[in-house]
Amino acid sequence: MTASRVLVLNSGSSSVKYQLLDMADGSRLASGLVERIGEETSRLVHEPLAGAAAAGGRRERTGPIADHEAALKAVAAELAADGTGLDSPELAAVGHRVVHGGTRFTRPTVIDEEVLAEIRSLIPLAPLHNPANVTGIEVARSLRADVPQIAVFDTAFHATMPEHVARYAIDAATAERYSVRRYGFHGTSHAYVSRETAALLGRPVADVNVIVLHLGNGASASAVRGGVCVETSMGMTPLEGLVMGTRSGDLDPAVVFHLARVGGFSVDEIDSLLNKKSGLLGMCGDNDMREVLRRAGEGDETARLAFDAYVHRLKKYIGAYSAVLGRVDAVAFTAGVGENAHQVREAAVEGLDGLGLVLDPEANAARSARPRLISADHARVAVAVVPTDEELEIATQAYALVTR
After folding, report:
1. Model confidence over 97-128: pLDDT tens digits?
2. C-beta of residue 292 within 8 angstroms of C-beta of residue 322
3. Residue 217 burial by CB count (10 A; 0-12/13-18/19+): exposed, middle or buried?
4. Are strands 219-225 and 209-215 parallel, antiparallel or unpaired?
5. For residue 265, how far is the Cα from the chain centroid?
6. What is the SS3 assignment for 303-361?
7. Nearest one of 166, 188, 13, 163 to 108, comparing CA atoms
8. 22, 82, 154, 329: which is the annotated catalytic residue?
9. Which residues of the chain, if any, have pLDDT below 50?
10. CA-only gyration radius of the chain, Å
């Protein structure tokens, strides 16, 4: 029997998300989440997605889970209870989401000691994410040392950006010394959605230019020419670009100096302000777009202002990336807000008929979990809603690497 299963792990600072997929047919065998790791109120939710009835369906338990090692052992126990444990000979690889790959890691990579050391060295570029990613890798290797562990990097898809796009206009020696450049994030989502958009249009990936709008609590845009990323909105960190749930997005750098000099803010306080207390949350007190829309609909002026700022930034990037690409075949909305908030899609495209973007109002308002076109028949540029699947993308890349 050829091993065809891939376990995908997304290790956060206090959580582990996971999916087990069978790459023979792309089916999901299980998924789950461990959250609040290190607290008394830790919670594990496990859902067998194939043969769920035989396995007893969704299971949930609460209670202290001390650390990531205990969390992954708990995950392994849940999988074993379904007959899909980590000791299965059918497990071909473990795919790890790693947020920052710097300039070295531009494709999926088999993890060995040297690679792990390099990922650790990138922690200063992603201090909130890479440490947890490293921990997840270390624990998974200890649990199943004989199975290839594959790192799939959020930054890798954007490594094709031309140098003049990736560079900031600062002193070159300083930029080189401190690795100051634009890396981009959400790369697995942008890669998956750009390919799926081409498939939706019935055209080869190499012939399609797409603007991908990944709109979740974190949000980013990319310009993809023929399957290759040529520009993206996030930069050295995930702070740059669009207005997000709690992040400011684009900001005059002098705001930082002003807050330090006039407001007496420390570097850590400014970091916290811009990453955790800004965006929609900072403007109106809610980072959930559903609440922002509800409040705006009831006449709340602060929520309406936050919504308008969010949409204005989207329009700017759609226009800018139309100029970058020269020819746009499709604009694709994805992730939680992009897939579900038809009001955001409507407002983002409104008034852009000069760029060839016109929605079909009924198609836009209809809900579906499937990829679909929502543009008017006469529109020059297709507008699509394409549900993202980052776990499948990670599994696909990991499996391709171990079976090539």
Report:
1. 999 999 999 999 999 999 999 999 999 888 87
2. no
3. middle
4. antiparallel
5. 30
6. HHHHHHHHHHHHHHHHHHHHHHHCCCCEEEEEHHHHHHCHHHHHHHHCCCHHHCECECH
7. 188
8. 154
9. 52-54
10. 22
Report the distance separating Cα 59 and Cα 82, nearest Å: 11
Give CA angle at 152 (246, 87), nearest 5°: 115
Tell me how far CA of residue 56 lies from CA of 42, 49, 51, 59, in angstroms.
22, 11, 9, 8
Residues in the chain: 404
154 in active site = yes
* Burial environment of residue 96 by CB neighbours within 10 A (0 to 12, 13 to 18, 19 or more): buried
Q: By the 8 A CB rule, do 397 and 145 touch? A: no
Burial 369-404 (b: 16+ CB within 10 A, else e): eebebbbbeebebbbbbbbbbbbbbbbbbbbebbee
**Best CA proximity match to 253, nearest among 335, 192, 379, 169:** 169
Q: What confidence tens digit (pLDDT) does each residue in 237-291 have?
A: 999 999 999 999 999 999 999 999 999 999 999 999 999 999 999 999 999 999 9
- Which residue bears the tokens 């599994």? 395
